[in-house]
Amino acid sequence: MQPDTSKTARFCTFITVVKTFLFLCILWSCQSENTSSSGKVDESIYAQIQQQLLDAQPGTVVEIPAGTFHFDRPLSLDGISNVTIQGAGKDQTILSFKNQKVGAEGLKIRADSVTVQDLTIVDTKGDAIKIQDSQFVTLRKIKTAWSGGAKASNGGYGLYQVACNNVLIEHCEAAFASDAGIYVGQSTNVIVRNCYAHDNVAGIEIENCIHSEVYDCRVENNTGGILVFDLPDLPMVNGHTARIYRNKISNNNHKNFAPEGNIVGIVPPGTGMILLAAKNIEVFENEIVGHKTFGTAIASYQITQKPWNNKAYNPFSSDIHIYNNKYERKRALPDLTKDFGKMVNYVFSGKPQDILYDGILDDTKTGANPMKICIRQDGEDLRFANVDAAHDFKNVDKDITKYNCSKSVLPGVTFK
Questions:
Q1: What is the number of other CB atoms lying within 10 angstroms of the CB of residue 78?
Q2: Of the residues 214, 271, 319, 398, which has the maximum number of CB atoms within 10 A of its CB?
Q3: What percent of the chain has pLDDT over 90?
Q4: Which residues pair with 375 in a beta bridge?
């Protein structure tokens, strides 16, 4: 007689439900202790959540109930696919790492098909959430912040994804990161949408990625709003193809509080967007308003005056299409703390600019517009200039009609 496997399966499911129920009851019973102002670390709650992550199987949902929980080391998930980490709500489940003693991250993940949603992580020593070498990553309704405000000692990143494929970040909020609130680097197929990034050095940064979209986001009161960078001497270089559209990028005039030596340390307060060594980029239907230095800059990596070793690296910005955006400048003197801002003050006598192009060309390219920079922006008051940075700003050219061209619309990101 064959055993009744269906009964066995139902019994196992029953045991799993009971274990989960008991676990949640324990967490709820400890909630009052963990919402106290003392911030006392509760080792038992940390151990129970971490054990669930260690014991997870594909399909597991690790639920963290409402409450403020204080931990002194990262939670981690490694190598187990198709796991969901679920809080009770962005403003309900709060994980605090203010007294962190071990590690740097709040939540560290290296796993495929992972979803993290409905929780807040604050005051980590380093990155709030770090996800690396993973595929099909979803971050939804998450908040990251540092409660002490803007400080160089804050962690570098709120949401940090690197070397990942198929990344979706939506309805998230990031504040007070000393580098970037929302960062995706060296990744393929990336979507950042409906997010709110504020009071960071960089609001949203797409770095060395292939095929990315940033849209319907609100980015305000950062040093720089949205950065699309391609940097040298990383495992993955020559990123390309990004669409930045329908974002509200406003009043990014915050003091730059990046630690010394960080690449975002070059960003002057009053920056809407920088395209640095960016290739095949489409920027359209954004509101880029209230910036005291410039709305959008198109630049090659040479503008940083930093060396590189990778001979395969392409330092130029090319195939840029900027059109149908709304630009409004802030009535203020451009920044004087960073070289970019000093350049604007020097060349334009203290007048903020809308679109700046460094004019540094790849000598192997030919033609009247060799880097294929296309700008179609209406408005008699628009301030545009090719600043001729390669020749110490000797031949600044404000004629935007030289770049009055169009390019084919880029396809949207699809996950594969």
A1: 10
A2: 271
A3: 88
A4: 322
